[in-house]
Amino acid sequence: MDPIFIIYTPGSRRYTGGHVVLHVLAKRLAESGFEVWTTTEPMYPCKVSVLEKKEEEGYILGELENKLDRVVAVYPEQIEGNPLGTKHVARWILYYTKKEIELTWSKTDEIYFLTYGFSKKMSIKLKDYKRLETFDFKHDIFFNKGYGAKRQGYCYLRKKGFPEEEKLISETGATDLTSFTEKGFEYLAEEFNKHEYYLSYDHATFYITAAAMCGCRVVIVNPDPTLTPEEFRVQFPTQKYGVAYGWMDLKHADMTRDMVIPYTRELAKMQEKLLRKFVENWRLKIS
After folding, report:
1. Global pTM?
2. Which long-range contacts does 114-119 make (Cβ < 8 Å, 24+ apart)?
3. Domain boundaries, the chain
C-alpha cells in the first residue's frame, strides 16, 4: 500500500532555500507516482493538489479523511504540533530547531534532517536520525561560462547573519546582488560569471554552491574559529569543493573549483537514493 504525502509548505518563495527543498520534495514524490498534496501552490509544474484552508477551521483534508491510515504529513522544523491531524508525521530539520517547538512533537514522529551543519546548536542529536536531501542545483543555469581573465571584483548577497555595520565585504567595493530576485536566476548566474570573488557571511546557503559552480572564488568571510575547514566540509557537504572557509582556505577553493559541478551531479544521484529510502520507510510503516 502506497503512502499519501502532504508536504507542509509555509510558502512558495523560489529564492528561499527552505521553501525550495520542500517543493522539490513534493515534485519528486509526484513524479514517482505518489499522491501528493501541499498547503500552498506548488513551485514547480507537477501533479500536486493543494489543500483548502478556512480561516477558522484551518486546512480541510476533505477526501483524505477516509485515507488517514495512509497519509503522511511532512513538516519543516518550525511547525508546532500536528496542525493537519494526521496519523503519520515526518519532521524535516532544514535549519536550527527550537526546544519549545520540539516539545510539541510526538514521540512517534519520524525525524529527518537536511545536513549535519545545524546540529551544534540543537538539543536533539541528528546522528540518531535519517537524512533527506532534495536540492535543486539548477545545473542548466549555474555553470562556468569561461570568461577567464575578464572576471573582475567581488560580489555578495545580503543573507542570514549579515551584520548591520558590515565592513569586511564593503571595504572590497563588492557589488551587492541581493536585488537579483527582481531579475531572476539567469541574471544572478551571469553576475557570478563576471565577478572573480563571491563573499558570504552565510555559510549555509545554496548560493555559495551556485557561485562556485559559476567559477567564482567563494570565500566565507566569518568562519567559526572553533571549526576547522575540514570539519565545516563534513557538516555542509554541498560546500565540499570550491569554497574557502575563511581567507586562509582559499587554496582549497582554487584547487577544487573544477570539481564542483561533477560533485553536485553525484550529490543529485545520492539524493535519489535517500528519497527511495524515505519512501520505503513509509511504505513499511503504513503496511
Report:
1. 0.90
2. 114/21, 115/204, 115/235, 115/236, 115/237, 115/238, 116/234, 116/235, 116/236, 117/203, 117/204, 117/235, 117/236, 118/93, 118/204, 119/235
3. 4-134, 148-264
